[in-house]
Amino acid sequence: MLHDGAVTGMAGLVFAAPPTISLAVAGQEERFPVRRIFCVGRNYADHAREMGHDPEAEPPFFFTKPADAVVASGSVIAYPSATADLHHEAELVVAIGRGGFMVSEREAEALIWGHAAGNDLTRRDLQAAAKAARRPWDMAKGFDRSAVIGAIRPGPIDSSAVIRCSVNGTMRQEARLSDMIWSVPSILAHLSRLVALHPGDLVMTGTPAGVGPIAQGQSCTVTIDGLEPATVRVT
Ligand code: MN
Question: Counting CB atoms within 10 angstroms of each CB, which of 10, 62, 73, 96 has the fewest?
């Protein structure tokens, strides 16, 4: 039993349950229900170096955002509270359609439902303070409206696809998905040893070099060849 005593069963709820967060699906009307959002840290060697780390030295590590941090592409958001250094991080998002626990890299492919372009918005100043104090990253990464995600495209993606991020039309990040240190199957295999994956889970797979600020009034667009863009404007 997945949730043991934590499901409602026949009992009522003391107030209405929150709505299911969902994302648009490219080419069809039905939407993808979001369960959890897992994010990979430092998955491109040049970004690991720009953040002061040795890309060869570490296995993948994970942090999370709540599902209701999701922002649909095309949204306008207020500049987040508690930061003066909001950063963009262009990322491939993997959408999980089938659950799995302790899966091998070979088995991991079968868990994937589709892919999307995403932007792991980050309060870089809070992250730097958390790192310095050896504290958790939650408030630097998992704040409201911190996960900008485009429509999900079902099926596989070509690892030679290029991922790009631009701010007000100026290119800030550009890399190939094949530049990832840990491949998507490897990420899913590692993650599934830590938690059981379930349909609706999203995995943001890390960002290449070139992260930087988004100022008030600017628009930020993440594109990945073959996928819908993920755009947000900050006011
Ligand atoms: Mn990231």
Answer: 10
CA of residue 199 to ligand 1 center, whole Å? 22
Contact residues for 152 (Cβ-Cβ < 8 A; gap 6+) = 23, 24, 25, 26, 32, 93, 95, 113, 114, 115, 116
- Measured in Å, residue 87 CA sits from the centre of ligand 1 at 10
Query: How far, in Å, CA of 222 to CA of 177, rounded?
Result: 13
Segment 70-85 mean pLDDT: 98
- Is 146 within a domain? yes
User: How far apart are alpha carbons 50 and 25 in whole angstroms?
Assistant: 34
pTM: 0.96
* 46 belongs to a structural domain: yes
Work out how many domains the chain is built from and give that number: 1
pLDDT at site 1 = 47
Rg (CA), the chain: 17
Cβ burial, residue 173 (10 Å; 0-12/13-18/19+):
buried
Q: Which CATH number do you get for residue 120?
A: 3.90.850.10
Domain that holds residue 89: 20-234
C-alpha of residue 217 to centroid of ligand 1, in Å: 22
